[in-house]
Amino acid sequence: MKFGKILKAVTAAGVISAASFATAAYAEIKVGFIGSLSSDTGLSTLRGAEMAIEELNAKGGVLGEKIKLVTADTQEDVTEGIKAYEYLAETEEVDFIISGSIDDVSLGWIPRMQEFQIPTLDTWTSSISIIDMVVQDPEVMAPYFMNIASDEALATLYINFGADVLKKQMGWNSVVILAEDTGFGQAITGLVTEAISPVAGIEVKETIIYDVGTVDFAPIFAKAQATGADFIYQVSSVNSQVISSQYVKLQVPMPMTGVNVSALGMEYWEDTGGAGGGISTLSPLPSVGFKLDPTSQAFVERYQAKYKSRPVIPHFNGFNAYYGLTQAMAAAEEAGGFKDAKKWSAAMEKQDLKLELDGKLWLRYGFWGKDEVEEVTKRTYPHNARFDLSAPYDDAQPSMVVVQWKEDGSVGVVYPFEYATTKFEIPSWIKK
Hints:
Elements: H1 3-12, H2 18-25, E1 28-35, H3 40-58, E2 66-73, H4 78-91, E3 96-99, H5 103-116, E4 120-122, H6 128-136, E5 144-146, H7 151-167, E6 174-180, H8 183-200, E7 203-210, H9 218-226, E8 231-236, H10 240-249, E9 256-260, H11 268-271, E10 280-283, H12 294-306, H13 316-335, H14 341-349, E11 352-357, E12 360-366, E13 401-405, E14 411-415
Parallel strand pairs: 1-2, 1-3, 3-4, 4-5, 6-7, 6-8, 8-9
Antiparallel strand pairs: 10-13, 11-12, 13-14
Helix pairs in contact: 1-2, 3-13, 4-5, 7-8, 13-14
């Protein structure tokens, strides 16, 4: 029972005992973090949530109650992720859950969310299959929100990059896909394969699936070369620094782009031993090499003053956690708490934060409505982060950007052109 209800109950009874005051004094809103406690991805979400909670508590909390954070480690494992969600729901009895889980783990605990009906925000997972669940069963999925663009939007942006840069500028006509054997890998591969040929005019020569525990990529790169494709598209969210560094060290004579999660953090250069030049990856916003609006820059400065260990700059999901948790608490203020999940959900749907840079809309933290149809894909994305798939990006930021690490260790945005801070290049060892 929350503080206000306790105080009203004991006052009505005409007796306010020391025990009643003790119970009331410790009334709180409990937030559960679910994700890896040993990865840059997980720590980004955790720290973003910590900072938001500290700032909210400094202002008096929410509904007169302080916010307490508890954690559950998924170890980036599906089984452990399910246990973690159950622990937060049954043992800690949390009011709200913020997730830094990877796709496979979130897909694992989603049935538990449906069962417990705990308001939950995913800050890393981009699985379109979860948004499809919201479309198909909006009542059961009402407590769930995802404040990162789903992978269908991700793939759409990358197809545009393929058409505008890889095909038009570089003259590449064919690709071989190297994808890890995960739910994330399968989802992105399927979306890219289905669209890259008809939309970007790039032929998919072959798709090669590899195990996430692979340590020797020489045979895989040799097989990729044998396809005769113009470039490699890689999809990697687990141990992706391995494929990156081996690509550079082996001087693979094919350009390689795609989705590389390790390249999303500033530690990438160190993790690859300086063998990461030439790698480009699609990244949600804000990304490494991305200009920041004043509000987000201030967040980074406070983050760096507080945390001295990696990640030195939070991944995009750290921003998602900071802004998203603040919005979740604002929705709780409007809904009178989290207990009525549907009432909280209705309030959360209305949250909409717009951040500007030099007078231009730069970042937007809002959600698609149930019946809103996105004009490019012609489908709905209820409870998914609002994104814009076509320039001039005046309604929201692009779903993603493409960033590239250069051989001197610098990194910048190469696409969309409106957000670019550098130009796309092929590695120096590849003959044009």
